[in-house]
Amino acid sequence: MAEKGRFQRGASFILFQDMILSIMASLLSILIVRWVSEAIPGFTVIALKWLMFSLVFSLIGFLVTQSHKVVRRWATMGSITRLMWAIVIKEALLSLCVIFGVLVKEYQSPQLKVLLIISDVFLTAAFLFYMRFAARVFSKSENHNIMETVSRKNALVLGTSNESVSLANGLETTKKYNVVGFITSDPDMNGMVIADKIVYLCKDKNDIRELEWRLGGIDCIFFPKGEVDKVDSSGSDDDGLSAGNAAGNSDVKSEGVSSSGDRPVSDGMSLMGKFIKRSFDIVVSGILLIVFSPLWLISAILIKKDDGGPVFFRQERVGLGGKHFEILKFRSMRLDAEVNGAQLYSGDDDPRLTKVGGFLRRHHLDELPQLWNVFRGDMSFIGYRPERPFYIEKISQRNPRYRYLFQIRPGVTSYATLYNGYTDTMEKMLTRLDLDLYYLRNHSLWFDMKILMTTFLKIVSGKEF
Predict the structure, then answer these.
(1) Helix, strand or coil for residue 242?
(2) Rounded to 10 degrees, what is the CA torsion of 178, 405, 344, 434?
(3) For domain 152-255, which CATH number applies: 3.40.50.720, 3.10.450.50, 3.40.50.2000, 3.40.50.10300?
(4) Tens-digit pLDDT profile for residues 90-104
């Protein structure tokens, strides 16, 4: 039953995706005709009619061929053939409308009519087949490489010499360490990239503590012998980056660098990046709150009618700066769901789900109210999934690095969600933390865009979160 539900959701997302791509192709084709022609009287009306008919004919083509129901087997000849026939149906119907003057009778030039159809055929096929190819490539990707990377120990290497670079490469070859960068006391080297790794300026232990926050924890610092000699000859005091623990060995590491401070520092994203990300959150969440308001109303009526309980589920979570906030969701469980204490959600078969709540959960509609949390600033679209104080305490007992996440806003979706899914065990929570810390070390506007695109490809390839 659950497998059937996942299949239906995947098919629905593919149909939606294909419709959007088909309309985009038609819009671009009519614009191409406009760009290569002289002024066209009533172009706006013509373009709207073209898009409307394209929408209808695309839907007919997809429903007749059922091309959207080939969710997982992207590479079969049958799936490609279905998609080709769907395109043929759409373009044939559009061509008939053009020939009989239903759509573009204002065009005097037959060449422009031919260009319009050819452009639509080419662009529709290009968009649809490219997305199929991208989804197929993604569906074949393996997650074990990612999990292997995030489970390694985070290491820094002292210095920027050839010896330091060789040591960093050797450490990563062992697959036990993830070298996150080089450290130096030379201000001129700060921020430079050597061997695809950033150089960080660290003059003393306070800089190391700040860097530990920024990188989500440091397990060890390696001192190449050549750099140890430089440090020894520089006469660094005990508060500096001394090599006292290195004992003159070339591959000696300083294990367990810890931070005594509890206040988050800069997380590494530029001020401009933070401004752009927050602006995106405000604008998009505001628009979606308006667009989805009818769906809010329908969901509220169904929940209230189901068992008469409250529409919204409010729960305390911990977010930016360690501040507590109330996360909003449509209530999907019975009123007595946690009468025996906090329990993790166990999936679509969780007996605590209500009838309406099960539907909302399966289609992720229960999380729509989180748009208000994003608009308010409690959350962002991309971040880490916020957790309850009860479970944060449990996780921190096993891995105290959870506190590093408080430097950034939690998100509606996350990098960890893509590769770890929903967490219903403590082990999954710890794995999720490793992935969240990886996001903290690498997060940027580009990384956020990559997560959004990967989320989309996961959905259209029929994969379950």
Answers:
(1) coil
(2) 0
(3) 3.40.50.720
(4) 999 988 888 777 666
